[in-house]
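so im writing up the methods section and need the Glycosyltransferase record in one place, dumping it here so i stop losing it
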Amino acid sequence: MAVSPDHAEMAARWASFDAAWYHARYTAVLDLMDVTPAQAFDFYHEHGAALRHAPNPFFDEEWYCTTYPDVAALVAQGIWRSGFDHYLNAGLHDHNPHWLFDEHAYRAAYPDMTQAGLEQAGYRNGYDHYLRTGDAEMRTGSCFFDPATYLALAPEGEGSTLTHPFADYLLRGATALPCRTLSPYFDAEWYARTYPDVQAEITQGLWQSALHHYLCNATPLAFDPGPLFSESFYCAVNPDVLEAVERGELRNGYAHFLRDGVHEQRKPCSMLDLAQYMRDPAIQADVAAGRARDGFGHYLTARPDLRPAAPPPVTEAQARALFRHMCAVRLPLLLATGIDFSASEPPALSVIIIAHDQFEMTMSTLASLRANYAGALQVIVVDSGSRDGVAHIEQHVKGIEVLRFAGNIGFVRGCNAGLARVAAPAVLFLNNDVDLQYGAIANALARLMADGATGAVGGRIIRTHGVLQEAGSIVWRDGSVQGYMRDAHPAVPEAGFVRAVDFCSGVFLMVRTDVAQALGGFDEAYAPAYFEETDLCLRIRAQGYRILYDPTVCLVHYECGTSDATSASRLIARNSALFTRRHGPELRRRPLRHDPLQARARHADAGRGHVLFIEDRLPLRYLGSGFTRSNDIITALAALGYRVTVYPIFRPIEDLATIRAAFPDQVEVIHDRELPDLSAFLQERRSCFDAIWIARTHNAARIASIFNEAASSIPTDRIVVDTEALATCRDVAYERLHGLDSPQPFAARLAAELAPLFLARRVVAVNGAEADLLREAGFDNVSVLGHAQVPRAMGPGWEARRDILFLGAVHDQQAPNLDSLAWFSAEVLPRLVAELGPDIRFGVCGHVNPRVDLGPLRQHPNVCMLGQVADTAPIYDRYRVFVAPTRFAAGIAYKLHEAAANGLPVVGSPLLCQQAGWQDGHEMLCADITDPAAFAAQVIRLYRDQTLWDTVRANALRRIATEQAPDAYQERIGEIMNSLFAPD
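--- predicted struct ---
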């Protein structure tokens, strides 16, 4: 973020008097007074400032004095010569210079906009950065100005040459495009039509543009910015806003809405329910990723109310016809370039493809196979009596083996013929009417070879028109079979996790070669086809192997077989009866066919039981605040052999890749439902869960009534409520810290918080102190479960490190971490700077909710905002001291254990020391959070004393290794679960 010398001119223009512009802007007055351009500067100082003339196009004197009446009063008293004089000398950091720039919003929108970074790069404030650098980088200083929109409105050819859109708009764009919309938040065309008197005033030159009028007129409550925001409606339904406007704290209702109301999801008008619109996780994700400023901006851009009706869905027959057409279109290209499977090294995989005619389709499948996997493959094409191009396919495909038969021998016999020629350790039976999706072959091969107990692997098969054919398959007791989740969307949570299944379709079935050959391949009693893969998978399982479904193995199956419907039905009926006779003993162990049992029947192995895990939101590790601990619990349950389904109270906004990477691949993550859907979910999954783990007491309160209604469908005698942290302890500490009166006695408040624990067979506390409180409250079923950590002491030593670190999540304005940061940066950090020097830096790392205002931190010259990082190890290795100035909290701070486990000694509050059961001066240094000087002294002591630093670091690492080993943690969770299943 360094200043380029090329931008020095802009720096001079915004902070100085522009004589040429001034003379052009106020020509009427200056000509009347016979003032020449050379005399403009003197005139401005003698008369122009008093007339509220602007000194340059980047500062609006009239607007500034109107917006800040206290400044206007000081100007009138002669304390400041003008608003511009005040801005340059006193208002740079907390006043806005123009109606189209917001200093606070600009800094908040860009994480790199810290005071330390601005000063280091030579900028005076955010406006200086914006005009010299940010404008050219297409940043924006106001939600009312979108640079991309402005450039699109520029005359043809000019947009691509403009390097500073905002500056250009102020210099000429406002008057050139007076009634054109520059951002979704202000509809200039609608405004001009709705208020024709304003348009007339713009034509007369009284206003630069419709936007200028809206932001600067003297009666702001009288005008709406567009058809989807109503001042009268908003102020009528939000009397608190109207009161603030009448007190002069807000310009109008829209100012409140853009600052706060949109984030609180208040309705902007009677016809738009913003809260309902924001329930869509895709919209939430867009806002979180910065693709939209907020939900209202997203709606204004998307305008779903104006979209045409969706076209009718493509039918399966249409999709198949299109596939056949595309195969024909591709064929000349494939014939011209050829497909090459030649390899010098031994193949990792052999692929068997049966083809009876269908040359175009077979070539398309071979091309998909080659594109999907670059490694060595043995490809065996069985020509089953073809009369088209398949009869000479080796002329177009190099490196394949072709087995030719005079007649159509069918899938079963063809596969067995190919199996006898297989040379690789794994064999893939692959249909010739498929399109393999990215990574399918490599993922299946890795899954098959990762564990010797895996005998075969199948994948997520998508039908021609975009719905699931199967996500693994089920065998019922009557011998019938069912593709799990058939006709569902391919991205449903139920199809998104690895599990052992009864069988996978022969469309794509990868098997260990030695296993397939030992069993003689497919049983030819099923020839020519149907039930052969079901039979083979059950025989593989009878040998002690698993059949795994892996959702990362994905392909589209076009189901363009050669059998007619009548003969197919006849074969299915015959082979179904054969299958039932052959596997009677095994079938008797399968469940009766019943739709509500699909979620249980989808698993071929019994496992240790199916656990439903309920949390506020999906517990992603970077969220902190207890979510990391929940993630550890889920991981441990899966490692213990439990099937786990994670259900969030609030629907997630993260993308599916982030969600899947956050959990073990055998965990089912419900990412498309939330609390209002829980009742229906429990009904759909009735009798499927063996235990329920509820994270956080307040979630037990949220779902108590739902569980009462669903009591016959859930394991009511196997429910864990994990308190995670007792909110009463945190709230009382907060009140004590701020000298507030408690609304109720501690015991009464705690009793109210613990009331929902009636649900629990087992209650879990995060530390011994809170466990004692639970026992004192009458609970005799309490277990203690803290954190799991792996010590990492390989980082650099004391000499190679510098500076001070805080790492933790901030979810809202009341978060203990935000309080810690505010107190430390305001009270402690200045003392550290005075003692350790002006170059000392305070690094702040971790997830921050976009709605949380970190403005004071960003403006501190010694604070480095590091943001959320994927790998925290390099961060921990860079800093010398970790600070945890927590002044109120409950449970145990995960950040304390994580920092210690990463070899970074901690200075923290006595509260954290007590929660962790650590000793001051041994595993950490404790510091008084009511005495900033004392806290600073402890930080300085640890920062400068290498011997103390080494001692504290080593002691904390030993404590972590002793008390928080993952194996012991998993064992404690196992004991909690065993207590649920133990007889009373």
